[in-house]
Design a protein that fits this description.
135 residues; alpha+beta; YaeB-like fold; 5 helices
């Protein structure tokens, strides 16, 4: 835990989708999310605003072998010495669905005050405890 650089939090809808994932893909998704704890600023592709989505400042990890994308955003908010990473979407890869879902959730996140934000996100410890036994 001492080497953690980031506090990873899942959007509540992303957490619901995570819980519905097939058990065969959970280990790969867990590995990708665990990587965010240490290297969120080094992994994934930087996203840009497109005609239908505004995801500048977000990043994406593609898990090609299992057909899943994870869209996340690193914030400058500090928790102790950790920076917060918000996972906006965990979806099966399709043309634009993952980006549209992430855009919608990101828009909702931008509208919330800082006081409201923590209540709408599952902290790393909460979703990590829920996933035990799925690895």
């Amino acid at each position: 835990m001492a080497d953690n650089k980031f506090d990873v939090r899942l959007d509540s809808d992303a957490a619901k989708h995570y819980k519905k994932l097939d058990n065969s893909v959970i280990p790969a998704v867990n590995k990708a999310i665990d990587e965010l704890v240490f290297r969120a600023d080094e992994v994934g592709k930087t996203l840009k605003n497109k005609h239908s989505t505004k995801l500048a400042g977000c990043r994406e990890i593609k898990l090609r072998a299992i057909g899943i994308r994870i869209v996340f955003r690193i914030t400058n908010e500090m928790v102790d010495i950790l920076r917060i990473v918000y996972v906006l979407s965990i979806e099966h890869r399709s043309k634009d669905l993952v980006f549209k879902v992430a855009d919608k959730r990101y828009e909702e996140l931008r509208k919330k005050s800082k006081a409201e934000m923590p209540r709408s996100l599952l902290k790393q410890t909460e979703w990590a405890n829920e996933r035990k036994g799925k690895d």
